[in-house]
Amino acid sequence: MALSIRRQCMLLGIARSGIYRPPRPANDNDLALMRRIDELFTAWPFLGSRRMTAMLKAEGLPVNRKRVQRVMRKMGIAALGPRPNTTRPAPGHKIYPYLLRNMTIDRPNQVWTADITYRAPRPRFGEARMTGMQKRKEKTMTCPLL
Q1: The pLDDT value given to residue 38
Q2: How confident is the model at residue 127 (pLDDT cuts 50, 70, 90)?
């Protein structure tokens, strides 16, 4: 008994829409571009799509950045480079102690907090937004009352 295409796709965990349309074969222009991008990326692995596009245009190849991005994504390559270290404190930065470490919060108004989170004002029709502090329970406040 043969399985239907619907059942086969469900068992394989793939979308049925990808079965009926075969993928387009790569044309010679894309293959030549892939080869050149691979050569440039091997020489300079820190180049992203913007710099790669500039180098290809300097060589006389008529490409835009979206095409270079698509080809790089298809090849599975991405620029290697340092990422921002946003979790590391700056040297000399004061680390404030956590004042509620051994404190048991067992009644309302025992602890208060202030939230300085900024959210860009982009209201939508009929939408009411809650800030992070409105969502938290009163027991988990962060600043002791004196």
Answers
A1: 94
A2: low
Q: If you average pLDDT over residues 3-12, what whole number do you get?
A: 90
C-alpha distances (whole Å) from 61 to each of 71, 115, 117, 140 are 14, 52, 47, 59
Per-residue CA distances from 126 to 110, 111, 123, 129, 132 (Å): 35, 33, 9, 10, 20
Integer Cα distance of 37 and 78 in angstroms: 11
State which H helix or E strand residue 112 sits in. strand 111-112
What distance in Å separates the CA atoms of residue 121 and residue 118, rounded to the nearest whole number? 9
Q: Which amino acid is at 108?
A: P
Q: What confidence score (pLDDT) does residue 28 get? A: 83
15 C-beta neighbours (distance < 10 Å), count = 8
The average pLDDT across 118-125 equals: 67
Residue type, 140: T
63/88: higher pLDDT: 63
From residue 88, alpha-carbon distances to 15, 81, 95, 117 in Å are 42, 18, 12, 20
Q: pLDDT value at position 146?
A: 47
Mapped onto helix, strand or coil, the DSSP state of residue 41 is helix
The structure tokens listed for 46 are: 């820190």
